[in-house]
Amino acid sequence: MSAKDAPRRGKSRAGEWFTPARIAVTVLAVLAVVFIFENTREVKIRLLIPEVIMPLYLALLAMFVIGVLCGAYYFRRR
Prior knowledge:
By secondary structure, the protein is of the alpha+beta class.
């Protein structure tokens, strides 16, 4: 009997998925999305040269997506 065939003890598949770090990241992501959609008023945003008037939630959502993509790229490269 090889190590792969031996029955697994301890953690179940659900226990491997729901780690404290993953739960914390999920809670923070949900809080960030709630914060984003609570801020719906229009604001002036300066993008290097042009000044744009747009809802604040779109700017926050764009920054959230860019942050998620940067984090995913960083951890994939590691």
